[in-house]
Automatic annotation (TrEMBL):
GO terms for molecular function: 2 iron, 2 sulfur cluster binding; metal ion binding; methyltransferase activity; monooxygenase activity. It comes from Lutimaribacter saemankumensis. PROSITE patterns: RIESKE (PS51296). GO terms for biological process: methylation. Keywords: 2Fe-2S, Iron, Iron-sulfur, Metal-binding, Methyltransferase, Monooxygenase, Oxidoreductase, Transferase. Residues 8-109 form the Rieske domain. Coiled coil: none annotated. It comes from the Bacteria. This is Vanillate O-demethylase monooxygenase subunit. InterPro entries: Cholesterol_7-desaturase (IPR050584), Rieske_2Fe-2S (IPR017941), Rieske_2Fe-2S_sf (IPR036922), VanA_C_cat (IPR044043). Gene3D superfamilies: Naphthalene 1,2-dioxygenase Alpha Subunit, Chain A, domain 1 (3.90.380.10), Rieske [2Fe-2S] iron-sulphur domain (2.102.10.10).
């Protein structure tokens, strides 16, 4: 499978996890998740080692999960603590437990090698902790498509003019050059549209009447977290690019979670520098975002369906594909690095390298 395993993925918002057993699948791995009495979210392998019934079909007893078939019971570490009808507990009677971190109302799960789970690698933005910014958790877009197609769509400003002509884009940006930077750890693509009518989103939310300068900055963090910095400002101000906070500025965050090869969940939220605490504004923005994201969903699912069909020729690549091409290569490199183990330079090699 084409998944990067050694990574933190979003399982959902904090509000999604309570006392009930919740089945969650990430990178093809089925888990059962719940909030323990300590308040910590737990993630266990969702498969009893006896007859393989998913533990999510069992029941919770305190901070343990009892299998619904024969009653084998597991604690929060995955250890079997009870086998009905016998006192001895087989050594192989356990389920895997996954590292979980909860921050800023977001629940992250480490899907790779347990000893490599480093919480400091979890995605973070300074705006989460800045009182001048307001965070609003949106929803979860379920897409029948491969996660790489979903993620690369989020580092592609060029599609906005055509897929979102009434919400996030317009014809005014069709031929505006896209700038791309792939030299750092984060892939970036951006462009400004100067002295143009505001797009539908900012007509409703920004309250702009005349022409604006607007921007789209797309940042893609490995393996599949995207940040879209977009906004507008009165064109008469001739705002410099590094002064975007003076306009109506929004960060749309997309945590792209691969479920299977054919199914992806995009957990989306936003940070904004205006209308702090105004839940009516949040609801209005959510409604506009949902329209735009459904437009993406329709396109991405149609592409995925066609990818499953026989192709007579290779797909073409054009200039605007620079960032997606680099992204795909980095994903391939990460997957390959996880598939092999480097033992270091040999101490007494039996071969001689001449080039």
């Amino acid at each position: 499978m084409s998944f990067v395993r050694n990574a933190w993925y979003v399982a959902g918002w904090s509000r999604d996890f309570g006392d009930d057993l919740k089945p969650v699948t990430i990178t093809g791995q089925n888990m059962v998740m719940f909030r323990a009495s300590t308040g910590r979210v737990v993630a266990l392998e969702d498969r009893c080692p006896h007859k393989l019934l998913p533990l999510s079909k069992g029941k919770r007893i305190g901070d343990t999960v009892q299998c619904g078939y024969h009653g084998m019971t597991f604690d929060c570490s995955g250890k079997c603590v009870r086998v009905p009808g016998q006192d001895n507990l087989p050594r192989s009677a356990y389920v895997d437990a996954f590292a979980v971190e909860e921050r800023n109302g977001i629940v992250w799960v480490w899907m790779g090698e347990a000893d490599k789970a480093d919480p400091s690698k979890i995605f973070h933005m300074d705006e989460f902790d800045d009182p001048d910014w307001y965070a609003h958790h949106g929803g979860a877009l379920h897409i029948k498509a491969h996660y790489l197609n979903v993620a690369e769509n989020l580092v592609d400003p060029a599609h906005v003019s055509f897929v979102h002509p009434t919400t996030l884009g317009s014809a005014a940006s069709e031929d505006v050059p896209v700038h791309v930077s792939t030299s750092g750890d984060v892939i970036a693509a951006w462009r400004w549209i100067r002295n143009a009518p505001p797009v539908g989103f900012f007509q409703k939310f920004g309250g702009f009447a005349g022409n604006v300068d607007r921007w789209h900055y797309y940042y893609l963090h490995m393996p599949s977290t995207a940040v879209i910095d977009f906004g507008s400002v009165d064109a008469g101000l001739n705002l410099p690019e590094d002064a975007r906070d003076q306009g109506v500025r929004i960060f749309a965050l997309h945590f792209v979670t691969p479920v299977t090869e054919d199914y992806t969940i995009d957990h989306w939220m936003h940070l904004r520098n205006t209308a702090q605490g105004d839940e009516e504004a949040s609801a209005q923005m959510d409604a506009m975002f949902r329209i735009a994201f459904e437009e993406d969903k329709e396109v991405l699912e149609a592409i995925h369906e066609e990818e499953q069909r026989p192709q007579k020729r290779k797909p073409i690549r054009i200039a605007i594909d620079k960032a997606p091409n680099v992204y795909r290569k980095r994903i391939r490199d990460l997957i390959e690095s996880e598939a092999t183990e480097y033992l270091g330079e040999p101490e007494r090699p039996t071969f001689v390298q001449l080039d």
